[in-house]
Amino acid sequence: MKKLLLLCCVFILNVSVAQPYLPILNEGQQWSLGSDTGWGFASTYYHVEGEEIINGTVYKFIIQTYSGTATSCRWREEDGVLIELDTNTNTEHVLLDFHLEIGDSFIFPEENESCFYAGSGGWYDRLVVDNITTEFIAGEDRKVMYMQGYDLQSFSGYEEQWIEGIGSTAGISPAGNYLDWIYRALVCFENDGETTFFNGYSQCIYDLGIEENLFPSIVISPNPVSDVSSINFPSEANIDRIQILDISGKILQECKVDSEYYFINALQFRSGLYFYRVYSENTMLKTDKFIIR
């Protein structure tokens, strides 16, 4: 009887300490990717914005911006599995699966099935889990899966990591077939105003049709805010919308912008940490934090 009670206690303890997977598709999270095209370096920017219900299922919009042009995909996640909807065929396929074990294989979708990458048929057609660890990344203990790429014959020499709550080090989704011979890498991941760099980068890279040197000039001053502070926008950035969020990611204010500044009044908020996001033509250009005293 004592042994039975002990086993029950152990089972209950294991269930109680089990943690849900950290979500990838949180509003406000954004990714910057770099690609070596062979003719120069190109960058792509992704962020989560909005959702849509299709056949009773909720999908998040993942916005991809490249050379100033935005496209969107419809993704959802379910307990550590990232799933994409192919709107042409109304079918789903898996992009990431954090339930895979060491030795398991991930088979890429067929070529052109995925919204953001080429799929199989190139240098390799599958990833195999080589190792699984838990690492402290971007302020959280996260499951990290080390993946190796294989073609039909053998190991191709390619490696990437899948990081819980962030995605692949080759992007949100796996690199697929090197994007048809184009190598890409995750440059930075931003969440709640905090930035984490990957693949040896030390600065986020954006390619939105706007000069990068404009971003440092989009700042709130003074910060912390004790009375009234302003966020100044360079006219070349064409800022047309701003959001103010609390620390949980809840949008407190959303306003159209028709001038080169926006005022933050401390009397409108309780003391604490907040974030702002600025947009140009539905593309998030920058997110940063500020403090209300």
UniProtKB/TrEMBL annotation:
<protein>
    <recommendedName>
        <fullName>Secretion system C-terminal sorting domain-containing protein</fullName>
    </recommendedName>
</protein>
<keyword id="KW-0732">Signal</keyword>
<feature type="domain" description="Secretion system C-terminal sorting">
    <location>
        <begin position="220"/>
        <end position="292"/>
    </location>
</feature>
<dbReference type="Pfam" id="PF18962">
    <property type="entry name" value="Por_Secre_tail"/>
</dbReference>
<dbReference type="InterPro" id="IPR026444">
    <property type="entry name" value="Secre_tail"/>
</dbReference>
<feature type="signal peptide">
    <location>
        <begin position="1"/>
        <end position="18"/>
    </location>
</feature>
